[in-house]
Amino acid sequence: MNKEKMKQSLLMGALASSFGIFVSKLLGLLYYSPLSAIAGESNMAFYSFTYTYYDLLLQVSQAGIPFAIASLVAKYIAKDDYKTVLLVKKAGTSIIMGLTVAVALAFVLIAEPLARQTLGVYAPAEDIRNLKILFNILTLAIVIVPLLSSFRGYIQGLKRLDIYASSQVLEQFVRVFCIIAIGYLFVVVMRFDSIWAIFIAVAAASFGALIAYLFTVFMSREDEKHVEDLAKAQNYDSGIIEKEIVKEILALGIPYLIISFLGSAGPLVNTSFFLKYITKVHGMEVYEQSKLAFGILQANIAKIANIPSVIAIGFGSGMVPYLAESLEKKDHDKISRQINQILDTSMFILIPMIVIFIFFAKDIYYIMYGDNNLELGTQLFMVSNIQIFLGTVAPIFSAIMMSLKQRKEAIITLIISFLIKFVTFFPMVRYFHTYGMIYSSGFYYLVQIVMYYYFLHKHFHLNIGSSIRTLLLIMLASLIMVIPAFALHAIVPFEKLNRLTDIALMGGLGIIMLLIYYGISVHFHLPQQIFETEDVSIKGLLSRFRR
Fold it and tell me: What is the arithmetic mean of pLDDT over 69-79?
């Protein structure tokens, strides 16, 4: 594969992965407002608590195995060793299934004490009981979702990111349908308690994952057969045995597990200590208001933050096989080019998004969640854009570090950033209440970004001078983009209209801003530079990626 083709493949893979995750996250946004209406906003904190631990448990039960499978499959395909590719798939699946069952059983045993720790000593007994039930429901997802992830890792290593993305979309579609339809049936039609909407929402993760797994297996059957045929036709045996593959998987997976755990330590600190600490400092009278603010921040705003987080997840998933290949060939110049292209492309999408979030925070929050707690939600959303931006960029660097086997450096970075998060969390929460979580998380991500860049510069001579210039031009284009729309917004007070009208008006402003951003960025030669083409029409850009 030549240099030109390599760059196109990297971008196409990353963008295909991002697109699939974007659609799945968009579907996730659609269910949240109906779920909040069915379950009641006070119950949404339970949803947030549950999914914080869910993310952590998935990382533990998967132990970085999907990442290891993707990296090793790409590595051995580059060597034309298809027998070992099949061995990687078999060993990885066996490891992940053993871990998931063990983690699920352990979680059942600690569900009640964990619920008490999370809610604090002032929590009502009913709240503790409901959170324990939700934790128990999670155990099924802890088994099914990692199985799906391990197979997706195999598909990712084969660079079938179209199937990878389609699987994500289907999983979320099934999940959203179950949340809205079954939740409505139980709570509205059959008159069950509103907490049942949360029970169903958590259970829907398992059903969506099961359907997506069956779909992924079905759609990739020809690819699997092709690899099996190539393995049969392979006229040599590498001599690699399953025990060696297990060691190689664990060598990649265990550091990834540590990095994933430390990477989620910031939100875990928030979930584990916020309510308990703030009621200890300010008394029981702040419990309900703090629980409401926590639910808005960790659930409502987190859902909006999922839109830009698609960039980190998508590019992180898409770059793994390509950086793994470049590292295997020890081509540091190619690695540096790939990193810069990933950073430029992600900033080109991320910066205008954050600018729109800041200038139109109230309208976006109103469209998503109505006028219930609108002022509090808007204030939290505006301040959260610091964390949203840094929390999107840091995982991109983290994925780069893991793809380049900079595990020791990544672990050092995350330990230091975790200590900073932990040390700053308590004084920040004491003096700034809910906003303190945002500020401490901002420091947490910023430290990661600075240290990741230091290590990449040290080991791969990464130079982002041109990317900084590109970043400044993107910021300028984004500010120019938003000025006319913001002026029009001052004339038309959207929040005083109904939500459907507001959606239409905001959609119209969105189109105006998109056209302005496109025109200004072309004038600054941003897409020409980032995508390396003079044909910046939509058709031209798409054909550029397909070649």
Answer: 84
